[in-house]
Amino acid sequence: MAKLRVATIGCGSIAQVLHLPGYAKNPNVEIVACADPDQRRWSEVQKKFGVDRFYKDYADLLDNEALDAVSICSPNAFHAEQAYVALGLGLHVLCEKPMTLTRKEADILVSAARKAKTVFMVGFSQRFCHGIIEAKKILESGKLGDPFMIRIRFAHEGPYPGWAKDDWFYDPKAAGGGAMLDMGIHAFDLARHLFGDVKKVSASVKTIFKPIKVDDNAVVTLEFKNGALGYVEVGWTSLPGFNGAEIYCRHGNLIIDYTTGMRMISGRQLKSGRHKAVTKTFPFRPNEGGWDIEMDYFIDCIRQGYQAEMDVVAGAEAVKIALAAYESARTSKAVTIK
Q1: Taking the model in full, what pTM does it have?
Q2: Are 116 and 226 in a shared domain?
């Protein structure tokens, strides 16, 4: 098979830290070109990855280059349109999260992806973390019994300044939301991945500390269709602390702490009423994996002809949970996902 000809739409941090390095190290890929309206990014990408063809407009890129696949690494507000156009050209698409900013856009992309019959993958990199992969296996094995509660916390000090190339994350029009959308979308996808579909959402979404026009903290509770419950906390104002997930089941629990490690606690209740705990510590850092294997997985999906697990439907469902959380915060009412 010939090398896959790929391009990125957007040359910001996520492109330069994840997508372009992932493509560059894979021997089955050729990076053909990139598009970004900010020409300052062009020299950065050329120096780091040897790309020598750039376009200010993504449409010109798609019109003038013979491609197999694109990564959509632009600000959130542009994801839906760019993905739709790429699918219409029969391209494989790796779209950064959130896939869209509205339910209507999500439904349109679901239809477009099904019609295109190409690989459509959303950048839910948390699914590739070793701790999450192991947790999924354990839950599916049934050794801990039925899961009934999940807690996920993703929080840091915010994307800008420090990580992002500019402050579009704090622009409501470009980003569509703040910490709840940026980090919550990962949590919502993980919750569905591990526990199944969500039925009802309640949320408090606030701007507490940062002088920005989007939210910097949120707490979201989830009710799953199988009766289990979930709790999601996200923030852009947090100093180092717990990041990861806790999963509670009938016969034990999993603690997936990205800082201190992963452990499984099980056991039995003694006649005295005390609980005899058995703790297993896993010999890996649970946050390892992630970006390191995401890009290879996308490329393997294309080359081997199978659809990504984090497909267009997963992207759409995560968006719908996020929008339900914002609606709940506005109305102070629980929102049922139809």
Answers
A1: 0.94
A2: no
